[in-house]
Each structure stands twice: as structure tokens, then as C-alpha cells.
Automatic annotation (TrEMBL):
Entries under Pfam families matching the protein: SMC_N
Keyword terms, alphabetized: ATP-binding, DNA damage, DNA repair, Nucleotide-binding
rRNA processing listed as a keyword: no
Xref: InterPro entries: DNA_recomb/repair_RecN, P-loop_NTPase, RecF/RecN/SMC_N
Protein name: DNA repair protein RecN
Gene that this polypeptide is encoded by: recN
KW Lipid metabolism (keyword) present: no
Functional note: May be involved in recombinational repair of damaged DNA.
Length: 565
């Protein structure tokens, strides 16, 4: 329930506080005083688009704040906490500001939030009906939504199951269509992958192999130069065939050692040097032996091996160029390509599986669509009967409402049903669509009758009606007021009206009063009691708030409403 609404600099309203509370609140005022700004303010709090043109002329921004009383453990409170906000005791405070530049800011439970959070909360807080909603009631979509609300939890639960099955079916069907459409392309891709994998597997590259082969090729390509250098070095160190009797390093070191050993008995400093020369001789001899081993290990048929190495390198280079720039990349391609080929090769099995899953999901969707149709057909008859009874009480005693549910071949996310709400103006006449068979006043009463009936199965905390009485007068207006009062027994009802017959049934009467200083019009809101209310009712009836006959008529009307409320 909305406890209070505070409006600042919105349209012609400079500042206004609307005490609302439970029951039936009527909002009246002169034309242009800003009554519809009340509905606009609520719309902003419910997440509607922020229009900078609504900001009062000369002001930087407009703002709206609403205080709701809600259950602390209810759905709305849970969503508020999910958005980061919280309640102030039993109260939920929502606010929205709109700058003249078009910037909008929403606050939910003390925490900034996107306007979409307000929209999400709005569906559980308020139902707003204006003349645009009367127009929407002429559409099949709005008529189906009204029937579904009346059908209540049984339909909502079945619809949730249906939509789950429907989306599962649509998802499987999309995957199946894609696989079938791409089958030729995927077959071609599989062939190309298979050829590439065979080529890589034939070469069988190893990580780091190209670097090792490069080193081997470099050695084999300079084999003779390596042989000469190693042989000469070995001869210099330790000649195995010293034909010229030239001293080698080992012999020279040995001669030097012997010289020091012979003289060592004369000077203790020489024996350590002789020992060092002996060690050096051993090291040089070892190096000479290693060179001999190196020479023995040089390939005798290096040219043939070099050819084999170069062929292998060429094969690896070809793979590297063809598959992403390197041997490691080619090996990686082999791994990923094999996995992709396995996926592509399983297309036939996947298509068969998807066909089965798609058929099963479609059958489930069909079955649930049939259940939806059955629930809607039963609800359609009950809704037509209940609304017809309401129309009789709304000064349309000969009219009846007919709700038709027609199946169609195509299944959509709401089922396969087309819902039509038809009005039979009088007994014996053919039912006609609301778009062609109802005047504005009749449509207002049909909409009100539908809301009264639906509220019994799908209650909403607050209803807001913006001139629901358009095109209505006299006895019909009194019945509309009576029915709004009846609706207010189970919900909060806020009505913007220009009819005294409707306002008379309100327990809370607010008047939007216009003042003018010659340049800027500002409006304020007053809560009316006693003589002030009688004067406003007289103004609504005759345009003369001070007329004695008008005041008498107004008091008579208020007494009638008080007696019949």
C-alpha cells in the first residue's frame, strides 16, 4: 500500500504531498491543474521512461518519493534486499529524480539502483490503468494477459512448465537446423582436417627436433674442416706419428719436468713446480686422447647423412610453413585438429540424438500447450460469466461479455491460443470485438469490471485509475464509483476523476488546486473534509462551488455514497 507520495517540480506541481493510505482515494481538480501528474509521478516510481520535459520550468530537476507499507518477509522486500536496499521498519521508500538535461537517478530502499529495478518491483506493487490501457484492452495480447491473470496459479504454473519446454524445444531445433544446414561445410572441413592430420602424422615431428637437426647439419656440412683441425691439434699436443721428430706439447712438458726434478735437490722451490708440470702433462695427454676419440667418431659417410638430415629438415620446414609457423604449432594443430575431427565425425550421431531430443521437447510442448488451452477455456467461461454480472451492476444490464479461446497451428512462447474478449451489447445481438463494439464509456466499464473480477483470483495491492470514468455519466458513473469502492475493500484504489458521482464513494478525497502569479502556475494538493469537500463536489457537478443547489446536491450524493459504500 502507498502511504504517501511527495512530488517536487514535476510539470505544473511545485511541491505537493499526497496522503494516500488504505481504501479508496479520489484525486480531483480543475482542468490543467496537474491531476495527471499524480499518475505520471507514480509511473516514474514504477520505472517508466524519464522525460526531461516533465521538469518544472526554470528548475534543475524534478523528484518523486513514495512510501510503501509492505510485508517485511514478502517477495518485494526480498527483491529490494537483492538490489542492495532495505526497509525502514515496515516502510519501503522509493525515489526518482529527473534532471532538466535528462539524467535520471533511482533510489530503492536507500540504495541507488537502475530504473529497471523499479520496473521489476512495480508489477507487484501497483497496477495503473489510464485511457491508453483502455486502448490496449482492444488488443489480443492484452486480452490474453487478462484471461491468464484471472486463471490464476494453475495457469501460471502450467505456463512456466510450457515455456521451459518451449525454450528447450526451440534451442534443440536451432542446434539441429544449424548442424543440418552446415553439414556439407562440416563434411568438407572434416576432409581437410583428415588430410592435414595424415600429413603431420606421416612426418611425425618431435618438439625441438628442428633445432637439433640444424646443429647436426652444421656439423656435417663442415666435416673435413673439423677433421683437419682436430688432427692437427692432437699432433701438437701428442704426436702419434712424428715423422719430422718435432717435439709435441706432452714431450716438452715432460722434458721441463725432468729438468726441474734434477735441480730440485738444490732448491726446495722447484719440486712443487715440477709436480705442477707433471699435472699439466697429464691434462694435455687427456685432451689429446679426447681428440683421438673425437676423430674416431667423425662419420666416414658424412655426405650421405647430411643428405638425410637436410631432407628431414625440409619436411619439417614444410610443415612449419603450412601449419601456423613452427613445429610446435604443427604438433599443437595435430592435437586440436584431432579433437575437432572427432567432433565433426560424430555429426551424424549428434544429429540423430538432437532429432530425438527435439521431437521429445516438441511433444512435451504440444502436451503442455493443450493443457494451457484447457485451462484457458474453463477460465474464459468463468470470466465471461463473472464480468457479465459486474456489467449489470455498472448500468449495462443487457450487455454480456464473451471470451473466446481459439487454437492456431503455430506455437508461440505463450501457447497456441488466441484470446478474444467480445461484447454483446444486448441479448440476441452478435458478440463484437471491443475494438469495434464498445464506446469509450463502455470500454471503461468493461475494464473496471474485469479488474474487479480478476482481483478475486490475482490480487494486487494498489490500483491506479486515470479517468476510468471517461465517457460515462449519470447512473453509470454512480455504479462505477460503487464498484471502485467495492474493489477498495481488498486493495488500495487511487482514482483520478472529474466526476462527482465517482469521487463521492472515496474515503479519502484529494484536490489538486491551481494558483497563478501571472507567469508560473504551481499546483498543490489538499486533503478535503466537510464543507471543503462539499464545495469541490458541487464544482464537479455544476462548475459552481458556492451554488446552494449545487452544495445540496453534493451533500445528497455524498450521503448516498456513504450509505451504499
Amino acid at each position: 500500500m502507498i502511504e504517501e507520495l511527495v512530488i517536487r517540480d514535476l510539470g505544473v506541481i511545485a511541491e505537493a504531498t499526497l496522503p494516500l493510505g488504505p481504501g479508496f482515494t479520489a484525486v480531483t481538480g480543475e482542468t490543467g491543474a496537474g491531476k495527471t501528474m499524480v499518475v505520471t509521478a507514480l509511473g516514474l516510481l514504477l520505472g517508466e521512461r524519464a522525460d526531461p520535459g516533465l521538469v518544472r520550468q526554470g528548475q534543475p530537476k524534478s523528484s518523486v518519493e513514495g512510501r510503501w507499507l509492505i510485508p517485511a518477509d514478502g517477495t518485494v522486500a526480498g527483491r529490494v534486499r537483492d538490489a542492495g536496499g532495505d526497509l525502514d521498519g515496515p516502510e519501503l521508500i522509493l525515489s526518482r529524480s529527473v534532471s532538466a538535461e535528462g539524467r535520471s537517478r533511482a533510489v530503492v530502499g536507500g540504495r541507488s539502483a537502475p530504473a529497471s529495478v523499479l520496473s521489476d518491483l512495480g508489477g507487484d506493487l501497483v497496477v495503473v490503468h489510464g485511457q491508453s490501457d483502455q486502448v490496449r484492452l482492444r488488443t489480443s495480447v492484452a486480452q490474453r494477459a487478462a484471461l491468464d491473470r484471472f486463471a490464476g496459479p494453475p495457469l501460471a504454473e502450467t505456463l512456466a512448465l510450457f515455456q521451459e519446454a518451449y525454450h528447450r524445444w526451440q534451442g534443440h531445433q536451432a542446434d539441429l537446423d544449424r548442424l543440418v544446414d552446415e553439414q556439407e561445410q562440416r563434411t568438407r572441413e572434416a576432409g581437410e582436417l583428415r588430410t592435414a592430420i595424415d600429413e603431420i602424422e606421416l612426418v611425425a615431428p618431435q618438439r625441438g627436433e628442428d633445432e637439433a637437426l640444424g646443429e647436426r647439419a652444421e656439423r656435417l656440412g663442415n666435416l673435413e674442416e673439423l677433421r683437419v683441425a682436430a688432427a692437427q691439434a692432437r699432433e701438437f699436443l701428442s704426436a702419434e706419428e712424428n715423422l719430422d721428430d718435432l717435439p709435441d706439447a706432452v714431450a716438452l712438458l715432460d722434458s721441463a719436468r725432468r729438468q726441474l726434478e734434477r735441480a730440485g735437490e738444490h732448491d726446495p722451490a722447484l719440486p712443487p713446480l715440477a709436480e705442477a708440470l707433471a699435472n699439466a702433462g697429464f691434462l694435455v695427454a687427456d685432451i689429446a686422447a679426447q681428440l683421438s676419440s673425437y676423430l674416431a667418431g667423425l662419420d666416414a659417410d658424412g655426405a650421405r647423412e647430411l643428405e638425410v638430415v637436410q631432407e628431414r629438415r625440409a619436411a619439417l620446414t614444410g610443415l612449419a610453413r603450412k601449419y601456423a609457423g613452427g613445429i610446435d604449432e604443427a604438433i599443437d594443430f595435430l592435437d586440436t585438429g584431432s579433437a575437432r575431427l572427432l567432433e565433426l565425425d560424430s555429426d551424424s550421431d549428434r544429429i540423430d540424438t538432437l532429432r530425438g531430443e527435439t521431437d521429445a521437447a516438441r511433444q512435451s510442448t504440444d502436451d503442455l500447450a493443450d493443457r494451457l488451452t484447457g485451462i484457458r477455456l474453463a477460465a474464459a467461461e468463468a470470466l465471461g460469466t463473472a464480468v457479465t454480472a459486474e456489467l449489470a451492476a455498472l448500468a449495462m444490464p443487457n450487455a454480456s461479455l464473451v471470451v473466446e479461446v481459439d487454437g492456431r497451428a503455430e506455437i508461440t512462447a505463450t501457447g497456441r491460443d488466441t484470446v478474444k474478449i467480445l461484447l454483446r451489447p444486448h441479448a440476441g445481438s452478435e458478440p463484437r470485438s471491443l475494438a469495434r463494439g464498445a464506446s469509450g464509456g463502455e470500454l471503461s466499464r468493461v475494464m473496471l469490471a474485469i479488474e474487479v473480477v480478476i482481483n478475486a483470483t490475482d490480487p494486487v495491492p494498489t490500483f491506479v485509475f486515470d479517468e476510468v470514468d471517461a465517457g460515462v455519466g449519470g447512473a453509470a458513473a454512480i455504479e462505477i464509483g460503487r464498484r471502485l469502492a467495492r474493489l477498495a475493500e481488498t486493495a488500495q484504489v487511487i482514482v483520478v476523476t472529474h466526476l462527482a458521482q465517482v469521487a463521492a464513494f472515496a474515503g479519502n478525497h484529494l484536490s489538486v488546486v491551481k494558483d497563478s502569479d501571472g507567469s508560473v502556475t504551481a499546483s498543490s494538493v489538499r486533503q478535503l473534509h466537510g464543507d471543503e469537500r462539499a464545495a469541490e463536489m458541487a464544482r464537479l457537478l455544476s462548475g459552481l462551488p458556492d451554488s446552494a443547489s449545487g452544495l445540496e446536491h453534493a451533500r445528497e450524493l455524498m450521503n448516498l455514497a456513504r450509505t451504499n459504500r
